[in-house]
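Example 9 (inverse folding). The structure is encoded as follows.
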């Protein structure tokens, strides 16, 4: 395993919050704007430094009139030098232009109060865009809630690194960082290697084979693996997907998730059939749906299938993934000898379930017994 240095540690921390290409693109556009407008505001504020030193015999006086942008520039740049000297030097012309260069141009060519007002407004709008992008793209709060200083300092060079990578430069660093990223997020994939599949999966995947062999699913299954939930799926990607349905106020620990998984698998064997769709290329879990089996005394000891928690990652919606997951669960319910499947849903999803062959029936009643 490679030992991460300062650059890789910061990159991996920041990258964890910037995985979706859409969000990375938003950052490539708005982080330079944020940096630039922040420096315009700093450059518009004078900084007077007066210092007297020494004793009466040999005293000295130091005076410097500058702006807040100058120390900020050096603090940032020293931070980049500490990360990697060659990268910092490559970034220097762009960084200078975005910070001191263009800022002093605007302030010397236009009325200062106008430049300040504009910079402030653009700065605020850029933050709003970033927050929206995090919410809808990554489904999580930005990295700055975890580590404010590191996020603010690292964001500009992260955008530069990503741009440099997409231009094919620093390919060695790119493969090293991506390998480390895989090692970190792939802790579980490694674990998976050591776990027999049968222990890792909620139910035997062979149960799905008849349902999956239908030609109508070929288009989806060529891009996504549809399979039983694995205990090694109980990570951020999957849990954030569930947050689309209902975000828990307090997140249980991974230990409790795994405990629940084993209860579902062993204690309530043949009851919980949770399937997921995993992107072949990225390995990300992009959809899930659950079938819960209820054995009844009525209907000649009939079995009823309850469909729950159908969700597709917002960036993957509209590609028939939801319909495929649902149809596979309905086929599975047939295989498991259910005489019907039922589900509750919001009014806005009725049409989706109609398109999957279900019909409106009865009324839903509920009484919350606990706050969730
Ligand atoms: C509901 C959801 C699972 C649908 O997934 P999806 O992959 O986008 O849906 P599909 O692409 O498979 O859609 C299948 C069909 O239903 C239609 N459809 C999907 N969602 C719809 C909606 N909310 N209203 C009307 N039609 C809808 C699609 O247009 C498509 O129609 P077509 O076959 O004529 O082209 C997804 O939107 C989602 O995860 N929503 C948030 C979570 C949620 O509300 N889950 C339901 C809990 S009850």
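The amino acid assigned to each position is listed next.
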């Amino acid at each position: 395993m490679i030992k991460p240095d300062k650059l890789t540690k910061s990159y991996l921390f920041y990258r964890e919050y910037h995985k979706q290409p859409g969000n990375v693109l938003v950052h490539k556009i708005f982080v330079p704007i944020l940096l630039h407008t922040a420096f315009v505001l700093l450059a518009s504020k004078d900084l007077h430094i007066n210092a007297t030193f020494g004793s009466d015999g040999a005293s000295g006086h130091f005076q410097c009139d500058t702006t807040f942008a100058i120390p900020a520039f050096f603090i940032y740049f020293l931070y980049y030098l500490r990360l990697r000297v060659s990268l910092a030097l490559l970034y220097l012309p762009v960084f200078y232009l975005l910070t001191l260069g263009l800022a002093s141009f605007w302030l010397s060519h236009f009325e200062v109060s106008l430049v300040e007002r504009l910079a402030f407004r653009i700065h605020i709008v850029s933050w709003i865009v970033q927050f929206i992008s995090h919410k809808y793209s990554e489904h999580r709060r930005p990295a700055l809630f975890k580590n404010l200083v590191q996020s603010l300092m690292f964001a500009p060079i992260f955008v530069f690194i990503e741009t440099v990578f997409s231009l094919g430069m620093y390919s060695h660093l790119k493969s090293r960082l991506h390998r480390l990223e895989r090692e970190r997020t792939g802790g579980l994939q490694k674990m998976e290697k050591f776990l027999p599949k049968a222990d890792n999966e909620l139910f035997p995947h062979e149960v799905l084979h008849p349902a999956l062999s239908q030609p109508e699913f070929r288009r989806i299954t060529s891009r996504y693996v549809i399979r039983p939930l694995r205990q090694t799926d109980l990570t951020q990607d999957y849990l954030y997907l569930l947050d689309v349905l209902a975000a828990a106020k307090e997140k249980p620990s991974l230990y409790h998730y795994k405990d629940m998984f084993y209860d579902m698998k062993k204690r309530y064997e043949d009851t919980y059939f949770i399937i997921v769709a995993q992107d072949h290329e990225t390995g990300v879990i992009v959809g899930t749906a659950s079938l819960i089996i209820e054995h009844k005394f009525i209907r000649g000891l009939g079995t009823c299938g309850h469909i729950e928690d159908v969700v597709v990652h917002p960036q993957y919606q509209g590609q028939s993934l939801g319909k495929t997951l649902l149809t596979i669960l309905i086929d599975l319910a047939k295989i498991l000898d259910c005489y019907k499947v039922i589900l509750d849903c919001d009014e806005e999803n009725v049409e989706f379930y109609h398109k999957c062959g279900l019909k409106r029936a009865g009324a839903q009643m509920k009484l919350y017994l606990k706050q969730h």
